[in-house]
Every structure is written in structure tokens, then in C-alpha cells.
Amino acid sequence: MEYKLRLNSLDDTVKLAELIAEKVFPGMIIGLTGDLGSGKTTFTKYFSRYIGVKDNLNSPTFTILKIYSGNYDLYHMDVYRLEDIGYDYELEEFIYGSGISVIEWYEYIKSMLPNEILSITFTVIDENQRDVVVKGEGKYEKIVKAISDRYSN
Predict the structure, then answer these.
(1) Is the pTM of this model over 0.90?
(2) Helix orientation angle between 10-21 and 40-50, rounded to the nearest 10 degrees
(3) Would you say the C-alpha torsion 137, 138, 143, 144 has a positive or negative sign?
(4) How far apart, in whole angstroms, are the C-alpha atoms of residue 98 and residue 126?
(5) Residue-level pLDDT at 113
(6) Does the structure show a pLDDT above 90 at 90?
(7) What are phi and psi for residue 105, nearest 5 degrees?
(8) How confident is the model at residue 88 (pLDDT cuts 50, 70, 90)?
(9) CA-to-CA distance for 139 and 136, rounded, in angstroms?
(10) Domain architecture of the chain: domains with CATH
(11) Residues 34, 131: contact at Cβ < 8 Å?
(12) Which of 17, 101, 126, 143 has the fewest CB atoms within 10 Å distance of its CB?
């Protein structure tokens, strides 16, 4: 199942992060993709706040993984540098754990991910606007449905 929407401001990104955080569950995996500067880390920053993370979240580009504590452990990964490397930095213990995994550039490690994840693609329209495609199967369909219900009204 997929739903396409347009975010017209930072406030819209914050609302999307809040809506998804309301549906959070142990072991949730969110895969993010989009050009540099499209909003992946910004989305994650607000999502983390809604799941109780108090620390200031920033991009794990050079460390690949940052772990934050909140209502759930949040595993924030940026796997951009893993493209074409051929090994996985032993991320499975986090991806398949009971925390929440948010993976920027998830498509670079797609072969090690389960079939069911929530994926979000950000496309820059202009300085403030983003087109977003949210996809989810199985247990993630209810999240896509909630987004559809929220934004189509």
C-alpha cells in the first residue's frame, strides 16, 4: 500500500513525524530515501522527539549508527557510505531488535532488511515543499492508511 502527499512546510514534516510516532511499535523499521537535503534527518529529528528522545539528534553520516534512548531505543542509521561495500557493519542486531530503526538511504542495505518496512521517499520541490511517498505492507499498512486518512480530508 502506498500514499503520496505534499509537505508544504516544516510544520507539515513535523505533523507527519508525529502521526507515524503515534503508531510506533517495538521492532519498527522506517526506511528513508531522497536526495541530500530532502528532509530525511529533519523527519527523524522530530520523530525522535515524539517517541521520547531528549537528546539532540543529528545525522550519523560518518558514524553510520547513533543510538538514542526514549520510550524506545532509537537506532538512527545513515548507510549512504555502505553502498557497494559488500558488508553490513553488523547492523542486524539493531534492525532486528526491539528498538525502532530509522535508516537513511535504506535501499543500500535492502537485502538485509525484512520484506515489511515503512518506507518514505522525499522529493524536493522547492525550498519548503517536498513530495513524499509512504509505502508499507503487512503491519505497516495501518500506518499508511492513517496517513491517507489524515491528508485526504
Answers:
(1) yes
(2) 50
(3) positive
(4) 37
(5) 93
(6) no
(7) 65, 35
(8) low
(9) 8
(10) 2-151 (3.40.50.300)
(11) no
(12) 126
**Could you tell me if 110 and 82 are in contact, meaning their C-beta atoms sit under 8 angstroms apart?**
no
Answer yes or no: is pLDDT of 111 > 90.
Answer: no
Alpha-carbon distances of 105 from 9, 34, 137, 142, rounded to whole Å: 22, 8, 19, 23
For 14-33, what is each residue's pLDDT tens digit? 999 999 999 999 999 999 99
Strand partners, 2: 135
**Other residues' Cβ atoms within 10 Å of the Cβ of residue 108:** 18
The three cell numbers of residue 91 are 547492523
Q: What is the phi-psi region of residue 151: left when phi exceeds 0, alpha when psi lies from -120 to 50, beta otherwise?
A: alpha
DSSP β-ladder status, 118-124 and 130-136 = antiparallel
Kind and range of the H or E run holding 143: helix 141-151
Residue with cell 518496512: 117
Higher pLDDT, 82 or 68: 68
Average pLDDT over residues 1-11: 96
